[in-house]
Recover the amino acids of this structure.
């Protein structure tokens, strides 16, 4: 048996869920710069998805857009086939789409928990399973959150769903080996929530060990590294200025 050597991204194809805006769009741009074709999944951001695909197409890669509501079980179930029909082969799946809403122990209800679990945990799991059944080999990245090691009491339903995705990453890495690698990237302080912007990051910068914040490019670098790394699976890279080191469950 030969040693596993790093994988070239050039000429491969990635499906990125929630790829039209923010971190998903940055990952799509980073992959395109590495020569990877991209299928940009969107739910509501069709104009952004089409515009991004147009831009990336002009940069020399192929780019497609595909719509699916990840809260809808039938649409989740059909997404891999729908994307594969456009581009013939998918090499990478980036489970990036997510819902991020406030909820606490006092306010959370069953509907909210189910919504978060469906979009943030169930859809990535089913997409990974379907991807592994349709394609002979590939790599998957799940987007987690630095707080999976602690507790986010203001986003309880979201937090529980990301914890589920954290465990799913390790389960999938075990179940889908050796043909599929499954890794995760856990950001924190790389992009403020919609409407809050950089002020949000600046205000929190002194709460992390590295006393600062970053931009999406650090997340993109981690995604590219994990996709290339043929001998890494079941791993999580925290892009968070050391936030996860706080270690306290309530931190
Ligand atoms: N931003 C950060 O600093 C940060 C920190 C920790 C973790 N993360 C994680 O990193 C990833 C990207 O972060 P982000 O802030 O860029 O994400 P985001 O803007 O909150 O959401 C990304 C996309 O998810 C899609 N989405 C939401 N509900 C959906 C549904 N029902 N069906 C299909 N798609 C749906 C949306 O697509 P449409 O717009 O097309 O509807 C949205 O644009 C997420 O998994 C997030 O949890 C980010």
């Amino acid at each position: 048996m030969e040693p596993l050597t790093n994988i070239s991204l050039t000429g491969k194809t990635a499906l990125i869920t929630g790829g039209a805006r923010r971190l998903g769009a940055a990952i799509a741009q980073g992959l395109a710069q590495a020569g990877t074709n991209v299928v940009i999944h969107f739910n509501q951001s069709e104009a952004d998805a089409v515009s991004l695909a147009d831009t990336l197409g002009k940069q020399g890669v192929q780019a497609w857009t595909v719509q699916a509501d990840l809260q809808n079980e039938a649409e989740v179930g059909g997404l891999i086939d729908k994307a594969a029909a456009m581009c013939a082969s998918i090499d990478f799946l980036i489970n990036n789409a997510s819902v991020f809403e406030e909820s606490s122990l006092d306010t959370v209800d069953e509907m909210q928990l189910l919504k978060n679990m469906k979009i943030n945990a169930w859809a990535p799991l089913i997409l990974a399973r379907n991807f592994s059944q349709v394609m002979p080999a590939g790599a998957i990245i799940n987007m987690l959150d630095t707080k999976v090691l602690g507790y986010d009491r203001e986003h309880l339903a979201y937090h529980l769903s990301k914890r589920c995705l954290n465990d799913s990453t390790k389960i999938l890495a075990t179940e889908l080996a050796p043909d599929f690698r499954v890794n995760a990237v856990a950001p924190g302080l790389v992009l403020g929530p919609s409407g809050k912007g950089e002020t949000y990051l600046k205000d929190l910068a002194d709460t992390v060990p590295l006393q600062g914040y970053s931009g999406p490019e650090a997340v993109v670098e981690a995604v590219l590294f994990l996709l290339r790394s043929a001998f890494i699976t079941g791993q999580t890279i925290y892009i968070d200025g050391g936030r996860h080191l706080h270690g306290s469950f309530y931190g």
